[in-house]
Amino acid sequence: MEAGDQAEQVGGLPPWDCMARWTQAEREVWLMGPFRGGIPGMVRRIRRILDVSQRGLAALLGVSQSVVARWETGRTSPRMSVVERLLRMAGLRMDFHDEDTGQEVGPMRADGARTHGGSRYPAHTDLTVTGWWVPRRLRSMTSIEAYEWVDRSRRIGDPAIRCRVSPFWKRMQRMVHGTPDDHPAVHQFVAEVQYLDERREDLKQERYGHAA
Hints:
The protein is mainly alpha-helical. The chain has helices at 15-18, 24-30, 38-50, 54-61, 65-73, 80-89, 144-156, 167-177, 186-211; strands at residues 96-97, 104-105, 127-132, 159-163. It is built from nine helices and four strands, in the order H-H-H-H-H-H-E-E-E-H-E-H-H. Helix 3 (38-50) packs across helix 5. It is elongated, with a radius of gyration of 29 Å. Pfam families: HTH_3.
């Protein structure tokens, strides 16, 4: 065992010595390896690529050696941000793929639309745009103030975004329109509302044109 490393102890003995107490069936299963090492094995792989001891990796990360030892024995796991840092240090890249299709799956976009309070919409919901944003108290009115808010929202590019939390309506919406891959960015919703405005204006022109 490399100096500075800490092997997982089982009954006070190193793992290999513990095989003396294994049954024949357990030995046969073990010899069918190698087995995927999971997160502990990945930490060890990165340490091997970097050619550093547990103490050396701990120094690079600014943690104690015991933390690295616990990662490698599976007693704890590093945070995702730490895993990303480890991969960058080793010159590796992490990809996720759909188990059924093999298609690569990426994280949700960072510039997805947010509420007026600045928080993100729930990740499991689907977002739709209903027009230009108007305060809730004016949404059922046709007052001058309501139209002024529509003009203001159009001018600054502030669309009215809605998310469905009802499982039934979300299922119905997905049956009709499909399942969105992500939450669109605000500028995409702005473009959609502008298109709807143009279509509404075209239909109005067609209707009044025929009437004339």
